[in-house]
Design brief:
The complex is a heterodimer of chains A (265) and B (283). Chain A is mainly alpha-helical and 265 residues long. Chain A contains 10 helices and no strands. A 6-stranded mixed beta sheet of chain B has the order 6-7-8-3-9-10, sandwiched between helices. In chain B, strands 2-1-4-5 form a 4-stranded antiparallel beta sheet, with helices on one face. Classes of the chains: A mainly alpha (265), B alpha/beta (283).
Chain lengths: 265, 283
């Protein structure tokens, strides 16, 4: 026989489940409205360009520096592992494939979520808390078309570009450590990389991954900001949720995409 | 350029129906949120050209009334008519069309923090008109001059004092010469000088633009000096109405407590609770 506390727990669980499903539905609807409002954003492309600067250009430093260090670490670790099998010449392949297929899209998306995603959530959450979105609506300007859609497309456009730059810097880092520092043969480093990395199989799949991550991270960031309770605590909670949810979404989607893309390998 | 100017002036002025005596008419209106009643049985008219105050204690439903007039929320029962148009029936496009003829000053200004003072005032003009930048510049400078802040056009909102921010927001609210200007707590947190300035500007703009104004406030003395008519809202109902003089002379205990700021009365000082002695475990 259930006591009162158990019943309350079950009721709380049900309430939480209904709330979560409702919120998911709201998020999907928000995504649909954002897409439907995108025509306005593209007609006034300068709005997207402005957001590209804030989300893309201002994320460059963290992406480039991280890419360089990740590539350098890959160069070091890869060399020590390959040396065991006498395959140091394949260092270029290891570094390039690791970056282009996995680390480039995933790590740059994680960094993007922390740097640009959290900023988007905080900005929109604060715009809501200070009634800027309400003021916009009162001026007969749709805040989703004017504020959300340009940020969404800026995020979606900048993510693959940032991931490509991350991979490029990573390969350069691997080259610095492997060839310049340790002394792996430069010719085999580049030629084996060129031979093993396939444009469609590796690079295009990496770009698709980063595009999907871009959609997911930007959607989550914008929705969390738009749905944030209009208080300091609400915005702070929404920013935290953006980073946590985006990170989990990136890793989960990465597994799904990898399992589809590299089935035959 | 002249043709464009003429078009914008006449477009905003065109009423949707034959000009009526009352710009806003609210009849038998009720509004509930999450099954909690916020407003009930509201009947109200806002005559053209007048400045009308909606007063009442915090949480009495004053701001909700503004939101209903602007079509942000829809009533559970009854109707809201603005310039002869039934707001309840409008779709999003219709509500946006109506709002282009309304201006609203928010409690703390709600200026766009990433835009300069100039761009804040220009925002609505750029969004809704095809005017070229030279004409927009002239219009914005005229609005800023009217609120005494032409010299602050290049400042960011973070560089403004509370009073200045409210004046910029006022310039933004009147950017398109609206027929109806709504003020949500325009006097909150202002120093006496800024308060006087805002109060004067509300009257000046109402009369100069031939607009109609609704001021939601609990700043009794300032409002009674400024407005032509007062509605007093308590617990979601209109419990008193009249001219400022009638409100001052009212014998209704609720109105007297509000107008003269009495600490105790129909609105109790103590939040409902058990007997004090029981809380102290003395009985």
């Amino acid at each position: 026989m259930f006591n009162r506390s158990a019943l309350l727990n079950i009721r709380g669980l049900g309430h939480h489940t209904v709330d979560s499903v409702w919120r998911l539905g709201y998020a999907v609807r928000f995504f649909g409205i954002t897409l439907a409002s995108s025509a306005t954003a593209f007609r006034r492309f300068r709005l997207i360009v402005r957001e590209l600067y804030f989300t893309g250009v201002l994320s460059l430093i963290i992406i480039l520096v991280s890419g360089l260090f990740v590539g350098m670490v890959l160069g070091l670790q890869g060399y020590h592992t390959l040396q065991t099998y006498g395959s140091e010449s394949a260092l270029g392949v290891l570094v390039a494939l690791s970056l282009v297929r996995e680390l480039g899209p995933v790590v740059s998306a994680l960094l993007f979520a922390s740097r640009a995603g959290s900023a988007m959530t905080a900005e929109i959450g604060l715009m809501k808390a200070t009634e800027q979105l309400a003021a916009m609506e009162m001026m007969a300007v749709d805040p989703i078309a004017r504020v959300v859609a340009p940020r969404f497309w800026a995020g979606v456009i900048s993510m693959p570009l940032l991931a490509a730059l991350f991979s490029a810097m990573g390969i350069f880092g691997g080259y610095l450590v492997g060839v310049v520092l340790i002394g792996v043969d430069e010719g085999s480093f580049w030629s084996q990389m060129q031979a093993a990395v396939d444009v469609r199989e590796d690079i295009l799949n990496g770009v698709i991954k980063s595009f999907v991550f871009g959609v997911a991270v930007t959607w989550i960031s914008l929705f969390e900001g738009y749905d944030a309770p209009p208080t300091a605590e609400g915005v702070s909670g929404a920013t935290t949720r953006t980073v946590v949810t985006s990170s989990l979404a990136i890793l989960g989607l990465d597994f799904l995409l990898t399992s589809f893309m590299f089935r035959g390998i | 350029m002249i043709v464009k100017w003429f078009r914008i002036r006449t477009f905003w002025r065109l009423p949707n129906a034959v000009a009526q005596e009352n710009l806003v008419e609210i009849s038998d209106l009720s509004f509930a949120y999450d099954r909690r009643s916020i407003l009930s049985g509201i009947n109200m008219v806002i005559p053209r050209g007048k400045v009308v105050a909606i007063m009442g204690v915090s949480g009495s439903g004053k701001t909700t009334l503004l939101r209903l007039i602007a079509g942000v929320v829809k009533p559970s029962r009854g109707e809201v008519r603005v310039d002869g148009v039934r707001v309840n029936d409008l779709d999003t496009e219709g509500i946006y069309r109506l709002r282009r003829r309304m201006g609203m000053l928010f409690q703390f200004g709600a200026l766009f923090t990433d835009l300069t003072v100039f761009d804040n005032v220009a925002f609505q003009i750029r969004e809704h008109t095809g005017l070229d930048e030279r004409m927009i510049r002239d219009l914005v400078l005229m609005k800023l001059h009217a609120v005494g802040l032409r010299g602050a056009q290049r400042l960011m909102p973070s560089e403004l004092s509370g009073g200045m921010a409210r004046r910029v927001a006022l310039a933004r609210a009147i950017a398109l010469d609206p027929m109806l200007i709504m003020y949500d707590e325009p006097f909150t947190g202002l120093d006496p000088i800024s308060l006087g300035v805002i109060s004067n500007l509300i009257r000046k703009f109402n009369d100069a633009l031939g607009a109609t104004s609704i001021v939601v406030t609990h700043d009794v003395q300032e409002a009674l000096e400024l407005v032509d008519y007062v509605y007093y809202v308590s617990e979601g109902r209109i419990v008193a109405q009249g001219t400022p003089d009638e409100m001052r002379a009212s014998t209704d205990p609720l109105v007297r407590q509000f107008v003269y700021g009495e600490q105790d009365g129909p609105v109790p000082f103590q939040y409902p609770s058990r007997e004090f002695a029981r809380d102290l475990r003395l009985s």
